[in-house]
Structures are given as C-alpha cells and as structure tokens.
From TrEMBL:
Species, as recorded: Rhabdornis inornatus
Keyword terms of this UniProt record: Coiled coil, Nucleus, Repeat, WD repeat
Protein name: Nucleolar protein 10
PANTHER family: NUCLEOLAR PROTEIN 10
Record's compositionally biased regions (Basic and acidic residues): 648-663
GO CC terms, sorted: 90S preribosome; small-subunit processome
Bias-annotated ranges (Acidic residues): 528-538
Gene Ontology BP, a term: maturation of SSU-rRNA from tricistronic rRNA transcript (SSU-rRNA, 5.8S rRNA, LSU-rRNA)
Length: 688
C-alpha cells in the first residue's frame, strides 16, 4: 500500500505493488512474501482485479454488490462480487465495447454499445439479443419512464430504441454534425447531448422538442487559456435538478446552472487533454474531473483544488463507489487501480477493515512515496557531476527539479566532496561545545555573523524600550531572541555583503552610521579578548553627533549616491584594465591535431560539417543526399520503395580517374591528328 499526501489529504493506493503470477505454487508465493517486503505489504482487496491488456470502462451496480469492467484483449466483461471479494463471471464479446449501462439493480440486465454499430443485450444467464444502429455510436443513455435508449454518434440524428415495444422510434433531428456524449437528468429527465461543435443541446423527451442550447466552446475560452482549435464536448454529467458539468476536449470543465447560459465556474486542467469523466461528491460539494493524465478534486463553488492524483498509466474511466471514499479507475494497463481517501467518506461495508488499517497507519506513520528519494535541482546535479543523467530513468522530473534515489545521491556526494563528513563532524562538535558553554555564566557578546546588524538591532531595541516606557506600551519581542531569525546570526551564508553594488547604492547613508558601529565593535572585541565584562550602552536619547548624522537632508543623500556611483565606475574601470593586461600577457599555444590514415586534410570546416552530419538522424541524412543528387528514392509498381545511390569516392580514386580521363583525351587528339595527316598525304597536299 502506497500513501501519498496533497493539501494534507491522505490518499491510499490499494492496488500498488507487484502482482504474483497465477501459475506460481503456494509454496513459492509464501517464499516470495518472506523475501520481498513490497509483496508482503501489498493489499489484494479484490482477487484478480485486472484485465488481460487494457480496461476501458468500469461501473458499480446500484445495489453496490457488483463491480463490472470491460476491456481487451480479447473484448470481455468481468463482473466482481464485493461480498466474496473475487470474480463472479467473465463473458467474452465479439467486438470492443465503447460504453455500457447497467439497467437493473444487479447484473441481470446490461446493455453494451460496441464498435461495429452493434447494440448487445445481456441477461442474467448471458447473451440475450443483438441489433444494429444506422451509424457508429459513441454514447447512449436510458430513459426510465419510457424505457427508451437514446444513442448519439457520428450522425446528426439521435436514435431511439424502445425496449418495451422492441422497435426503433422516430429519431431526434439535431443541428449538430456529430455528437460525442449524452446524459439524462435523474430528477426531471431532461435529455442533454454534447456535440463536436462545442455546444450542448437539451431536449424534452415528452414533446421531443429542443428546449435549450448552450455554446460551451465560447464560454470555455478565458484570458489564461490557449486554444488551438474549436473545443468539442467530451464529458457531460447532471447534478440534481439544476446543475450540469460539461468537459471539453481541450481540458476545461464548465459548471452550469440550467437557468443561465453563462457558466458558474470554469476549471482548467492545464494539460490540454480531453476530459474523460466527471463525478460529483455531494457530502463535500466536490467535483471529480479526470483526463488521461490526472484526477482533480475541486470545490464546485470556489474552484479551489482539494486534492489530485496522477496514476502511473493513462486513465480511461473513473468510478466513485457510492457513499464512500473509494475511487476506482480503468487504465491503459492490465491492473485497475483502487484508491481510498478517508476524507471523502468511510470505507464500504464489504471492506470496513480499511478504516482500522488507515487509523493504525496514521498512528504509526511509515515511509511515504518519496521518503527514499532526494529532491535535487539542476544546479545540484551540476555540482555533483550528474547533469548527464537528465532524461534517464534514474531521475524523475518534478516541479523545478528532479527526484533521485537517496543512495545514489549519497554516493555521488561522497565522490564529489570526500571530506564532507569530516566538516560535518567538526561543525557538530563545535555546536556541542557552544551548547555546553551556554550553560555557564558568560559575557553578553555579539554573534559571529552579521555583528553590525545585531548591534543596530540592539540600539533600536533600546530606543523602542525607552519609547514604550513613556507611552506605557508592551515591548515587542527581539529579533535576536526569535528562533525564526536565529540562523541569520549563525550561518555564514546569511552574511550581509557590504561591498556589493546593490548594498552601496540602496544604502548610501549606511556608511556614516556604520563607522560609529565599527568603532564600537572594535572596543567590544578588545574587551572580549581581555576577558572584561561588556557594559551595555545606557538607554537614553541619542547624542548630538548621532542626531546630526541621522538628520541629513535630501541634498546630502543625493551627493552620497553620486559618490558611490563614481566609485563603482572607477572600480569597474580598474577591473577591465587588469583583465586586459592579463589577456595581453597570456600567450596562445599552438594546438596539434592527428589526421587519420587514408584521409586528406582540407579545412576545419569540412571536419566540423562531417561531425555535424554524423549527429543527424538517418532520415535527415537521406534527405540531404537526395537534395545533392547522390540518392534517389522512387515507388515501384508493387507498392514498395526503391532506392538508388552513388558511392562517394576518395580523393585518391578521384585523382586517378582524372588522370585516366586526361590520358584518354590525349590519345583521342593523337588519333585525330594522325588520321588528318593520312588524308592530306593521300590527296597530295603534304608537298604543296
């Protein structure tokens, strides 16, 4: 069992841990449980609560006894009996299930909407009847008063199938090109459907007329959201008679009051993924919305996050067990997850032992999910020399850093700084000695860090005490005695750097006041060295010199700022001159490079181009060679690809070919000249 906490809400993952194979014998299972702590601590709430490959939908019967899930592969339905904590039956189907609905209180009446436009009915004994709808369906709802099934899908029509008469009725003609989801209000039975255009159409089943239209796509766009395309409706759920929640394909959840066309609240998941499921928790006024990556629980009035969960695998469906704090998910993995959140409600009666178990865990807290990991930032990784591990499985990205195994962190830290333990040991010894010294009668002395700041606080405290005595007010607590600011006077990392540019510009008059404090600090250090007792400065009014120094006008302040800026410019100029001298003194040493045997060096650019080309992928290299003409890719008549290419020749081969070409041209010219001479000789033109 894994325990995680967000916003002080404990979430217990009951399906965490490895599952044992079915073919293992009991003896081997017991041996594994003795060796592996994770297997020994795991909780198998329902036996074999999983699918062969993927689970797509999960629902609970109205009596709460049966949990049904569909998945692949092969397409199947599995029914689990909560009273027996095991699987009751399994039924294989002809095609994959898009969604299903439990019509009865138990498992005796089930309707499946399948991929191949099939609608399949199952009774208690198994398959009962199968029919088809004209277009591919995506969702359906059951209207209890009239026994009608409403199917929506890749069509502008809403198909109605009456289960009492056993025939299709007249369809509802809508303005939408396609519909994705639908739902029926459990109070007044209003039928609502979400379209691909981002609208919600509401129909009255009694008159079969449209009574309302909501443009959710326009309302989901706010100042903070970035929308690339038109959002469609991906989830729809009624809550009571007047509230309705709508989920979009871009990751927004809109809560509506049916009496208004504007949403009460818009909640963005900030992942850009379609909303898969929406559930309502009435006891705490929460909305549970889920996309494929995260499950978020938030207050429906304020939109404030209550808690959230991020499973390891993508989410397909979420089911909240009625009147309890148990949550089940269907995932892109064989195992279906079960979560128990005690804040949402008690455990179901068939697993009431979970309440006692969680109470014991809260009394004796054990290691949580991240106790064996160390959070490090990118700068920490560079200091440890582990920046090359970014992107590997050894680091898990989280917020502005990474989680890494605590053992790997200690090993890397020991290698990076082998004397860290000795420094830590000396620091602890020094702290112990100071603690023992604190028990003795000792002088009142200033801290080792930020002495001037401590002296300033002591002086201000004295002035405030005198002022409070006159006004008869209570003294405020001192910062030197406050535990929250104790580290500021002990840790050298908090030392105020008075030579920094920011300090000198933002505090131009501090230097005048600090000169007096520095003189006082020297006197105090001499007294401490001689072992004399330090006497506190008597309370009273400040001297005339101090009052004159503190009462500088605005002109003096401006002059001090100008003086500091002039000094900073002079210091920067000196630093630049020193760097220029160092650069002139440094001599550039020649660098030698070794050329591989059989290669000719032409320029550094060619080697750089060659290295850059080798770093590219095969696809990019093929595209480049195709542009240069050395490669030709064409389609054949069979449907496959044919590639012809020219081999690149080395420099030696190229020179040899050029020499042969010149030789052939010379021989050709000689033959032409010889034939020309013969022709002239035959005609007698040679002697003329």
């Amino acid at each position: 069992m894994q325990v995680s906490s967000l916003n002080e809400v404990k979430i217990y993952s009951l399906s965490a841990g490895r599952s044992l194979p079915e073919w293992l014998s009991d003896r081997k299972k017991r041996a594994l449980q003795k060796k592996d702590v994770d297997i020994r601590r795991r909780i198998e709430l329902i036996q074999d609560f999983e699918m062969p490959t993927v689970s797509t939908k999960i629902k609970v019967s109205r009596d709460g006894q049966y949990i049904m899930a569909v998945g692949t592969y092969k397409p199947r339905l599995r029914c689990f009996d909560t009273y027996q904590l095991s699987q009751k039956f399994e039924r294989c189907l002809d095609s994959e299930v898009v969604t299903f609905e439990i019509l009865s209180d138990d498992y005796s009446k089930i309707v499946f909407l399948q991929c191949g436009r099939f609608v399949e009915f199952h009774s208690q004994h198994g398959h009962y009847y199968k029919t088809r709808i004209p277009k591919f369906g995506r969702d359906f709802s059951y209207h209890y008063p009239s026994c009608d099934l409403y199917f929506v899908g890749a069509s502008s029509e809403v198909y109605r199938l009456n289960l009492e008469q056993g025939r299709f009725l007249n369809s509802l003609q809508t303005e939408a090109s396609e519909s994705n989801v639908c739902d029926i209000n459990p109070v007044h039975f209003l039928f609502a459907m979400g379209t691909a255009e981002g609208k919600v159409e509401c129909w009255d089943p009694r008159t079969r007329n449209r009574v309302g239209l909501l443009d959710c796509a326009l309302s989901s766009v706010t100042a903070d959201t970035e929308i690339e395309g038109l959002p469609s409706i991906s989830a729809l759920k009624f809550n009571g008679a007047l509230n309705m929640a709508v989920g979009t394909s871009t990751g927004q959840v809109l809560l509506y009051d049916l009496r208004s066309s504007n949403p009460l609240i818009v909640k963005d998941h900030h992942y850009g993924l379609p909303i898969k499921s929406i559930q309502f928790h009435h006891q705490l006024d929460l909305i549970i919305s889920a996309d494929s990556r995260i499950i978020k629980m938030w207050n429906k009035d304020t939109g404030k996050i209550f808690t959230s969960m991020e499973p390891e695998h993508d989410i397909n469906d979420v089911c909240l067990y009625p009147n309890s704090g148990m949550l089940m998910t269907a995932n892109e993995a064989p195992k279906m997850n079960i979560y128990y959140i005690p804040v949402l409600g008690p455990a179901p009666k068939w697993c009431s032992f979970l309440d006692n178990l969680t109470e014991e865990l809260e009394e004796n807290p054990e290691s949580t999910v991240y106790d064996d990991y160390k959070f490090v930032t990118r700068k920490d990784l560079e200091n440890l020399g582990l920046a090359h591990l970014i992107g590997s499985s050894l680091l898990r990205a989280y917020m502005h850093g990474f989680f890494m195994d605590i053992r790997l962190y200690h090993k890397a830290k020991m290698m990076a700084n082998p004397f860290a333990y000795e420094e830590y040991r000396r620091e602890k010894i020094r702290q112990k000695i100071e603690e023992t010294r604190a028990q003795r009668v000792q002088l009142k002395k200033l801290p080792k860090v930020n002495k001037e700041l401590a002296l300033k606080l002591i002086e201000e405290e004295g002035e405030e005490q005198q002022f409070s005595k006159k006004r008869k007010q209570k003294n405020l607590p001192s910062l030197l005695k406050d535990d929250r600011f104790k580290v500021m006077f002990e840790n050298p990392d908090f030392q105020v750097d008075e030579q920094s540019e920011e300090f000198r510009l933002l505090n131009p008059l501090v230097s005048k006041i600090s000169e007096k404090r520095k003189r006082k600090l020297k006197i105090l250090e001499e007294l401490e060295a001689q072992g004399q007792e330090e006497e506190e400065e008597p309370e009273g009014k400040a001297s005339d010199a101090e009052s004159s120094e503190s009462s500088d006008d605005e002109k003096g302040w401006v002059e001090e700022v100008r003086k500091q800026r002039k000094l900073l410019r002079q210091e920067e100029k000196l630093k630049r001159q020193e760097r220029l001298k160092e650069d002139q003194q440094t001599l550039l040493k020649p660098q030698f490079f070794e050329i591989k045997e059989g290669e000719e060096f032409r320029s550094f650019k060619d080697s750089a181009k060659k290295q850059k080309l080798m770093k590219k992928s095969l696809e990019d290299r093929l595209k480049l060679e195709e542009k240069l003409g050395t490669l030709n890719v064409s389609d054949t008549t069979v449907g496959s690809k044919q590639a012809t290419f020219k081999l690149k020749k080395s420099e030696q081969q190229r020179k040899q070919q050029e020499a042969e070409k010149r030789h052939r041209q010379e021989r050709k010219t000689l033959r032409r000249s010889a034939s020309h001479l013969k022709s002239r000789r035959g005609r007698g033109q040679l002697f003329h």
